[in-house]
Amino acid sequence: MGGEKTMSARFSNPTQDPILLRLVLSAIAIGFVALFLVLPLAVLFREAFADGLGKAFRAIIEPDALASVKVSLMAAAIAVPLNTLFGISAAWAVAKFDFPGKTFLVTLIDLPFSVSPVVSGLIYVLVFGMQGWLGPWLAGYDIHVLFALPGIVLATMFVTFPFVARELIPLMVDQGRDEEEAAISLGASGFSTFCRVTLPNIKWGLLYAVLLCNARALGEFGAVSVVSGHIRGQTNTMPLHVELLYNNYDYVGAFAVAGLLAMLALVTLTLKFILEWRYADELAASHRR
Amino acid sequence: MSLIIDSVAKRFARFPALNGVSLTAPQGAFVALVGPSGSGKTTLLRILGGLEQADSGSVRFADLNWLAMPARERKAGFVFQQYALFRHMTVFENIAFGLKVRPWRERPSRAEIKDRVAELLKLVQLQDLGTRYPSQLSGGQRQRVALARALAIEPRMLLLDEPFGALDAKVRKELRVWLRHIHDQAGVTSIFVTHDQDEAFAVADLVAVMHAGRIEQYGTPADVRRDPHTQFVSEFLSA
User: Fold this and answer.
1) Residue A181 is nearest to which of B84, B87, B136, comparing CB atoms?
2) A186 touches chain B (CB under 8 A)
3) Angle at the Cα of A166 (from A164 to A169), degrees rounded to 5?
4) Mean pLDDT for all residues in chain B
5) Cβ-nearest to B72 among A189, A196, A286
6) Lesser CB count within 10 Å: N end or C end of chain A?
């Protein structure tokens, strides 16, 4: 009897750690998040509103700032859909087919991640600049890539290229070809199979990848900085405009625009959260086999 | 109307998978392809289903040049070992898939699809599970859904690739009796791949014992058992 009692008293859930350890781990995690994520965000908004709401608002609707918002949104609006398309094609090809040079292709997709964004920007200067390979020829047709929107879009696309493909390749490899084969044998066409089977299976991964890609496209600094030319009100993106204002000691303006940029990121995250919450059932069903 | 497979061969990059396989089966027969893994039985099945391309040889079935037809036009109901159910669709939607993707001229109306699926759900004894997702079903239930999905397209031929391979012994035995029953009801020519000789001999009209990309012996289960033609067959049977 007594033995039994001590046995049951001693028994503890094998996956349950001591309370002290749990507290310490939680404190470290929360402290880290507070220090590196929440605090900077709070400081950002405090600085932005340091001289009152009105001033922060005026800094945002000031023409040059609005122009930078427009350039950033335009670049993202072009780069993100194109990268989504390329990313899906690349992942589809890598995951569902065997062909020579597949490993090389996967390595190549990673290139923008491993190269410094500044170097990516310089590559475009070398290709499209007036001293570059294609610059003079394009200038002959009055097409200006560098120091104009096309250059910004190209640099953004280069930097954000891997996001969609990287997210989808492991997912699609893991899902295999079984469901596609089943669909074909049931009489579905290739296009129908893609729309009804492949796409629904990857839609959550795809959504996540597109949101990340979009966030990065809006926030890209290095590569865009090299190709944009920093023309105020014309080729300045939001991050570049923030730097410009900051260097001119316009702290309220810099933090206001930075705050707007951060708000865009928060909106994307909220969007993702709402979608995940709304479709939780479906999400669980598509994850499990 | 019979199935005539004539010297079908297939080479993969490193090894030959099929070395000229020939086989004839009457319409409505239940044929088991049995043999150890790597004997080419699944490759032959996938070639019949149009999921793999044969290098040479021909197949005639129901007076059709079978291998010249694209997979989606063959109406070969394929049942996979890992079920391959569409995980984002309910059981109902899975079974209705083959009817919904038909070109609109041949597509049944919504009500007809509903009736047909209900009928199939009854046939596979899953009447109440139409709204479930595959992840909410047991292995045996999933495979029954997969079979209903394959039957929904009114297949010319039923191809089963180790359909019970992932199930436990008890469920396997129940399902194979039941499968034979379904086959007799539907009257569709069925090809059944398994590495389990008990299963093959218990359920099939005709058994092809395969080894290294060839058919070692082909005949009724009784004949093959009574008179194994090669040493491999007798060893395989006694294993």
Assistant:
1) B84
2) yes
3) 100
4) 92
5) A189
6) N
pLDDT per position as a tens digit, B46-99: 999 999 999 999 999 988 999 999 999 999 999 999 999 999 999 999 999 999
Q: Does A10 have pLDDT greater than 70? A: no
- In order, the DSSP letters of A151-180 are HHHHHHHHHHTHHHHHHHHHHHHHH-SHHH
- Residue whose pair of structure tokens reads 């204002």 in the numeric block: A245
- pLDDT one-digit tens code per residue, B116-135: 999 999 999 999 999 999 99
At A257-275, the pLDDT tens digits run 999 999 988 888 888 888 7
Task: Give yes or no for residue A5 having a pLDDT over 80.
Answer: no
CA distance A163 to A227: 21
Question: What pLDDT score was predicted for residue A3?
Answer: 46
Q: Which of B139, B119, B118 is nearest to B130 (CA)?
A: B118
Q: Which two tokens stand for residue B239?
A: 């294993």
CA distance B82 to chain A (A): 8
Query: What is the C-alpha separation between B6 and A220, in angstroms, rounded?
Result: 62
Which residues of chain B lie closer than 8 angstroms to A187, CB-CB? 72-73, 75, 98, 101-102, 153
Q: Which strands, in side-by-side order, build the sheet including B56-61?
A: B16-25, B3-11, B56-61, B64-65
ipTM of the complex: 0.92
A196 contacts B72? CB cut-off 8 A:
no
The candidate with the shortest Cα–Cα distance to B202, out of B185, B187, B224, is B224
DSSP state of B84: -
Cα–Cα nearest to A47, from A257, A232, A261, A240: A257
Residue B78 phi/psi, 5° resolution? -110, 130
Residue B88 and residue A285 in contact, taking contact as beta carbons nearer than 8 Å: yes
Q: Give A-chain residues touching B42 at CB under 8 angstroms.
A: none
pTM for this one? 0.81
The answer, yes or no, to whether residue A287 has pLDDT greater than 60, is no
Q: Are B144 and B126 in contact (CB under 8 A)?
A: yes
Average pLDDT over chain A reads 87
Q: B97–A192: do the CB atoms touch at under 8 Å?
A: no
Task: For residue A50, give the amino acid letter.
Answer: A
Contact call for B135 and A285, based on CB within 8 A: yes
Q: What is the pLDDT of residues B193-204, one digit of tens each?
A: 998 888 999 999
* Mean of pLDDT values over A183-203: 93
pLDDT of residue A32 exceeding 90: yes
| Cβ pairs bridging A and B (under 8 Å) | 80
B18 three-class SS: strand
- Which residues have C-beta within 8 Å of that of residue B149, sequence separation ≥ 6? A182, A186, B77, B85, B94, B95, B97, B98
Contacts of residues B48-54 at CB distance under 8 Å and 24 or more positions apart, as own/partner, are: B48/B5, B48/B76, B48/B157, B48/B159, B48/B191, B49/A185, B49/B74, B49/B76, B49/B78, B49/B159, B50/A184, B50/A185, B50/B74, B50/B76, B51/A181, B51/A184, B51/A185, B51/B78, B52/B10, B53/B10, B54/B8, B54/B9, B54/B10, B54/B18
